[in-house]
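Reading a protein record of the kind used here takes only a little practice. The integers have meaning only within a learned vocabulary of local backbone shapes. With that in mind, consider the following protein and its fold in token form:
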Amino acid sequence: MALLAAAGFATSAAPAAAQSAEASNAFLTAIRAHCGKAYEGRMVNPMPGDSVMARARLVMHVRECGDTVRVPFHVGEDRSRTWVLTRTSTGVRLKHDHRHADGKPDSVTQYGGDSRATGTAAQMEFAADAYTANLIPAARTNVWTVEISATQFAYRLRREGTDRRVNVVFDLTKPVPAPPAPWGSK
């Protein structure tokens, strides 16, 4: 690329780090655009072990939209889950904040990982980090994918090397009333 530019040829590709920063910022901006709104979702092709979640009403609520974006994920009356997305120097970090009804952290919480370099403004993949591998050894090969478009938000999990999959899709064209605060929040 530098050789082409030195030879007088126009080059339009930005360095990979700049592209990643641009994609990361655009990705979080797209989610922040829904701040304060809630959406109902559904599981796509649920696995037998996910039968409770597949039968429950699923609602995501883009609740906090500062440097850290917090998206509570309600499964029926269970308000224990929040997806936490934070901009890092290299991309975006996804963590899962799990709480008990009294607001205290669950023993299995704050797992997740950082976005891969191939992320775009519409999709980020997050590979399990070392903390996750130590906390949940079976999840050491987890890859979470978060996608956002004008009409849909998707949260997906795949456990590489196994058939474990979770796929929840939310319709962004039909806001629903905001649910109560997640456990541990006011």
Observations:
- The chain has four helices and eleven strands.
